[in-house]
Structure formats: C-alpha cells, structure tokens
Design brief:
Blueprint lengths: L9 H39 L6 H15 L12 H20 L7 H10 L7 H34 L4 H14 L2
Helix pairs in contact: 1-3, 1-5, 1-6, 3-4, 5-6
Length: about 180
C-alpha cells in the first residue's frame, strides 16, 4: 500500500500502464518474428543471387514454375532458382502484410499495390532487396530494444517507490523521448 492510501486516478494510471505494456510487448514479440523472417529472406536472397532478382524474374516466375511442373524444366536456364524464389515471394507477402497490419481499417487495391511496392520483393534489385531487409531488421530491433528499456525504466520506478500516477507520467515521458 502507498502512504496516505490510494489516490484518485491511481486505478486509471495503473490500467494505462498495463495497457501500454501489453501494446509494447506485442510489438516486441512481433519484431522478433520479423527479425527471424528477415534472416530467412537474407539466406534465400543469397541462395538466389543477384541474377535471380528484378522485374523480369518476378514476372516470369509463374510461367517458369508451370514449365517446370509439366516436365520441361530442362528448357529453363536455371530451374533450381524457382523453389527459393517462390519461398522468397512468400516471405515478401508476409512483410507486406506486416505493413498493412499497422494501418487502421480496410485498404484499397491502390493502397495494397503501394504497400507491395514498398516491401522487399523478388522484383527489387538484389542490392535494393538487401537494403530493404536491413531497414526492416533495424526497425524491428528498435521495437524490441525499446520494450526492454521500457521495462528497465518501469522496474526502476517500482524500486524507487513511485506512485501510480507519477509512474504513468514518467513512463509516458520515457516512451515519448526514447530514441
């Protein structure tokens, strides 16, 4: 119990702290999954190599897959590229859906196309793809780092005996100023 008993607004402050922690924790958990996907995408990209990227490779993937599927794979320059390119496309859709999930409400077809263009895909150049992965990784790591430091600050405030309303204000200030 706090000295002087519970103050008006303490329950609201505590509820807000828990709500914020839940939100930040979910973002940190999602960021760990994103980092795993980025690592997998990087391995696939390295397996495919520079020559396996670009608009031509993206636009012909389905046709090449069909040709391989009907047993004429020996007509293709590199049939072995199809499987990792297909897997890379799947990860790219996951990255795109991650961006979409951060929006509020339904999105139009035009907005979806913009999100796809902003995501790392087989249609990117190899260097562009790797740069996009690097950015995704940095952003994801940032969410995880923030949550870890937020919890450190929360623990410090608890250890200092700070009351709920002051603690909420301090944590919001921490979240606003964190870089």
């Amino acid at each position: 119990n706090m000295p002087g008993g519970e103050q008006p607004g303490d329950k609201k402050a505590i509820d807000q702290i828990y709500k914020d922690q839940e939100s930040f924790g979910e973002k940190a958990e999602a960021s760990n999954a994103t980092i795993d996907q980025v690592n997998q995408a990087r391995l696939l990209a390295e397996e495919i190599g520079e020559s396996g990227f670009g608009p031509l490779n993206r636009s012909t993937l389905q046709a090449r897959e069909f040709i391989s599927g009907i047993g004429l794979g020996d007509w293709l320059k590199s049939e072995e590229e199809i499987a990792p390119q297909k897997a890379l496309n799947q990860l790219s859709m996951s990255f795109t859906m991650g961006i979409v999930s951060q929006t509020k409400g339904a999105i139009s077809d035009r907005e979806m196309k913009l999100f796809i263009q902003a995501s790392p895909t087989l249609g990117s150049t190899y260097k562009g793809y790797m740069k996009q992965l690097e950015l995704l990784e940095r952003l994801a790591a940032r969410d995880s780092d923030f949550y870890s430091q937020y919890l450190d600050e929360y623990t410090r405030l608890i250890d200092g005996g700070i009351g709920p309303q002051k603690m909420q204000a301090q944590l919001e200030k921490f979240a606003t100023n964190w870089k």
